[in-house]
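**Sequence, structure tokens**
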Amino acid sequence: MTTAVISHKRPEGTPYQLDPDKTLKASQGLLQHVQAETKRLQEESSKRNLLAAKTSDSEDEADSNGDKPIWLTLTTKQHIVDQKRLKPSKISVPHSLNKSSDLRICLIVADPQRAVKNVVADPAFPEHLKSRINRIIGFTKLKARYKTFESRRQLLSEHDIFLADERIVTRLPGVLGKVFYKATTKRPIPTVVAHTEKDKKDQRPKSAKKEGAAPPSSPTVLGKEIEKALDAVPVHLRPGVLVAVRVGLASFKPEQLSENISAVVQKLIEKHVVKGWRNVRGIHIKGQSSVAVPIWSADELWTESEDITTLEDAQEEDDGEQGQKRKRNPSTTKGPQAGARKKTKVENGSDKKSAADRELAQVRKSKLAAQKAQIFGEEI
């Protein structure tokens, strides 16, 4: 019997990367659809729906200027469970999603908050950022003042962007709750507030080497870090195989969206996906209520050659398991021919099952080939 291999392994030198032309075509088609759908809904509804007022739930539908977000979704073959890779981060993009000059920024910092307030109030701190930062909250006061659902909801509605000290960003979900993290467009963006100089020898006393004890950066450096956070997109992950990142707005041009997608995909896979491109199953882009448009799909459903199973191996394993079951559960001896008849019936059923499995595998293989041909065809 010949060995029927399900699929072959890709050559080691095969590049894994996005096709710029397909990404641009997908961006152009999605933006046209989102803009046309938005225009149609505006024409149909002449009155404002009071139920669609700006609340914590509707924050997920548009940014602070009412512009619809464009999302990138990445699915992996293996679950992402490493705590280091699950830590919230940010990715710099060529075209910022926070373009408004009157954004209301809230800065959440580690204790003591007075040190950060003094740095922001310093004359050397950029004036265009100082006018937009209207609140600086320490972690201790955040827990004490915003315990109720109503207070957190009010805090959410009073600001457009939340920047969080990277030293405490992993502790915020338990303090802010689902009010903040359900509104995915307002989740805190990690920001470097204090440089601890880990690569250099720390000359501070041991009493000062604890969370929040490191002094904040200088006004100029802190201003650059805040600008960097505003020009980046936040990445928040949960254990699983799906990652969603906001990469653009409906008002973007196709070229702008395509450039943001390329930047996000490269850094996202490099920083958060174990085994890199070989663990990526598919990449799609979508609007808030549109279908997902594929821009990349893997040829294999596994990451290593050891994961490949042949039909012959699977059949031998099934036959071995059935043989063990027959030994453990012998046929009854009711009548001289009962055992022989039952054994023949089991063998015939096994043959029918193997034939059905082979036929089902062939059908699935044909469907998968058709889907790949449609995805990687000239038109999306």
Summary: DSSP finds twelve helices and ten strands in the chain. Residues 309-329+341-375 form one domain.
